[in-house]
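Notebook, bench 3.
Goal today: get a predicted structure for Fucosyltransferase from Macaca mulatta so we can plan the truncation constructs. The sequence was checked against the plasmid map this morning, with no discrepancies at the termini. Length recorded as 153 residues. Pasting the sequence as submitted so the record is complete.
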Amino acid sequence: ITDWLPSNKRAILVSEFSHPRELATYIRRLDSDDGLYEAYVEWKLKGEISNQRLLTALRERKWGVQDISQDNYIDAFECMVCTKVWDNIRLQEKGLPPKRWEAEDTHLSCPKPTVFAFSPLRALPLSSLREMWISSFEQSKKEAQALRWLVDR
């Protein structure tokens, strides 16, 4: 989890506490200490990400979100699936066993995303651009259902 968080003071990870009582004590301390709490939201307010691994992954990925210069994440995912299918075809042509990738139920039941209540300083003004991903989500859901139907036929 920590590999993909935006900064060092970013989230309270339950796994970092040996007992629920220790976690509760920390949360109470956080609630009573504004400075300690603000360290957790500073990256949101300033719009600064200090995690170099995350920054590199964002910079080098082949897809974008609300970025017309890049493929959207659905199209990029579809291309990745197609590439893996062709990789397996080539493996089988060489007499090698295909690789298997298998989704878990938790990968398939994402709730519809919502707009965050907080707003970073450099956020887009309220407009249709801030919610353009909703139609993409709904369209992708329909495409997934159609694909499932075709696979099951």
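Helices lie at 20-32, 34-46, 52-60, 73-93, 132-152. Residues 67-102 form one domain.
Flagging this for group meeting.
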